[in-house]
Amino acid sequence: MRYVILRDDDTNALTPVECLERLYRPFLDRGLPVNLAVIPDVATNALTPDGKTEGFLFAKNGTRSATVPIANNAKLVNYLRENSGFHVAQHGCHHECFEFDRKSTADISARLEQGSQMLSQSGFLRPAAFVAPHDKLSRESYREVAKRFPVISSGWFELERLPMAWWPKYAAKKLRHAAHWHAGGALLLSHPGCLLSAQRNFGTMLDEIARAVQSRNVTVLVTHWWEYFPEGNPNEQFIERLHETAEYLASQKDIQVISFADLARGGMPLN
Questions:
Q1: pLDDT at 61
Q2: Which domain range does residue 213 map to?
Q3: Which residue would you say has higher pLDDT here, 263 or 61?
Q4: Count of CB atoms within 10 A of residue 219's CB?
Q5: 214 close to 41: Cβ distance less than 8 angstroms
Q6: Prediction pTM value
């Protein structure tokens, strides 16, 4: 059996419910879990590393508050809680650029706790997984995140950013050519790039996903809901590729789509 975790990043208080419903109804109807990396208190001036406004802010509609807690969007919170196929991961706190690429343990801890409290106050279960904005964590952040979350999901891991006590396990992972590994009490998952991306070739997208899934025991498929709605307008061809992915995953008898929490409970071969 091969396992797939679908991870969609950047759901926040400004996310239109209609976007998530349009994208993920085919997954929900097939009983396929969708892991949403949710920003607990989104910064309304969030920028990309190259200084552009983050794409997930297209629906902020003139909001003037510096940040908006997820609880402020009761419609979205109720929708996610009413659809049990959605599973919440914690995506930073405000999603400021390189938010967890910092050295102050006190600052890191405060952001982690604030984010977790905001999700809890909205009625969500404590997340099993943490996703750092832009996949950047400092050595101090890795330590603090691993204390609080059984799973860290990232695109890659860099030796110089890891706690030195983790280096032997990282070296063993590299020798095994493993995608996933354990350190600091946490399970660290990497992914094969954002295969479900508007920047990729739509004609070969499903084939690339199938190859990635067949190449390992556990595959994290990463996408971003807002990429399907550039400036709020649906990209029908891209949405169709996502729905074809749902059909493919549901039709394969040797593939099981799971949540981060399922994986954290164990019993599944990683690599």
A1: 79
A2: 2-264
A3: 263
A4: 22
A5: no
A6: 0.96
Asked if residue 163 belongs to a domain, the reply is yes
Q: Where are the beta strands (DSSP E) in the chain?
A: 2-11, 34-38, 41-43, 67-69, 86-91, 129-131, 151-153, 180-183, 186-189, 218-224, 255-257
Mean pLDDT of the chain: 96
Examine residue 81 and state whether it is found in any structural domain, yes or no.
yes
Neighbouring residues of 53: CB distance < 8 A, sequence distance ≥ 6: 45, 46, 47
- What's the structural domain count of the chain? 1
Q: Which of 53-62, 133-142, 234-243 has the lowest mean pLDDT?
A: 53-62
Question: What element of type H or E holds 167?
Answer: helix 167-176
Take residue 198 and report the two structure tokens written for it: 């508007």
Secondary structure of 49-117 in the HEC alphabet?
A: CCCCECHHHCCCCCCCCCEEEHHHCHHHHHHHHHCCCEEEEEECCCCCCCCCCCCCHHHHHHHHHHHHH
Structure token pair of residue 56: 């997930």
Q: Tell me the two tokens of residue 83.
A: 């659809």
33-42 per-residue burial string, b: 16 or more CB within 10 A, e: under 16: bbbbbbbbbb
β-strand partners of 34? 86
Rounded-to-integer distance, Cα 58 and Cα 177, Å: 39
C-alpha 166, offset from chain centre: 23
Domain assignment present for residue 129? The answer is yes
Given a contact cutoff of 8 angstroms between Cβ atoms, the answer to whether 229 and 235 are in contact is yes
- Name the CA dihedral angle for 60, 61, 65, 68, rounded to a multiple of 10 degrees: -30
